[in-house]
Amino acid sequence: MRQINHTSMTRELFALYALARTDPAAVSDQQILAQINKSFWITNASDAVSQTFCIIAPACLLRPHLTAELIRTPMEALIACGCEEPESVFLAARHLLESANPYVMPDSHGQYWLSEVLPELGSLVDEVFRDVLRGCME
Asked: Are the C-beta atoms of 13 and 36 separated by less than 8 Å?
């Protein structure tokens, strides 16, 4: 199993998350978004679902108002895998958390968001997924 902080970019991202947890005002939304975008690495669509969940989940916990924007990335990967229903977001998160040999594993904050917060975001996930799917089909 690959550790999520295997690159310098993801190490920088998780250091930024740690700073935002201890001093939220010290880190802007734009800093978080910019570092997230630098932290993705090239992989196949299936592994990209896990990778992007691991990268965005801590940010969604820290800054819930960014969730609708951040959740689009794993949704795009799910759609690339052939998923066409919003429920696939919850199934993919559950699969990541329950997998015996995941491609990557989220940190404890990401695990919490994926297991406790994401399942409560049904209407948001439905709305954003349908928007992303429309965009992918255009």
From this structure: yes
The answer to whether 135 touches 79, Cβ cutoff 8 Å, is no
Work out how many domains the chain is built from and give that number. Answer: 1
Q: Is 77 exposed, middle or buried (0-12, 13-18, 19+ CB in 10 A)?
A: buried
- Give the DSSP letter string of 22-54: H-GGGS-HHHHHHHHHHH-----HHHHHHHHHH
As a whole number of Å, the end-to-end CA separation of the chain is 36
Mean pLDDT by 10 residues, the chain (138 residues): 56 91 96 89 87 96 98 95 96 94 90 98 98 90
Q: Bridge partners of 104?
A: 2
Task: Give Cα separations from 138 to 128, 131, 132, 134 (angstroms).
Answer: 16, 11, 10, 6
Cβ–Cβ under 8 Å, residues 94 and 50? no
Structure tokens at 6: 């295997």
Domain that holds residue 47: 2-137
Alpha-carbon gap, residue 11 to 34, rounded angstroms: 14
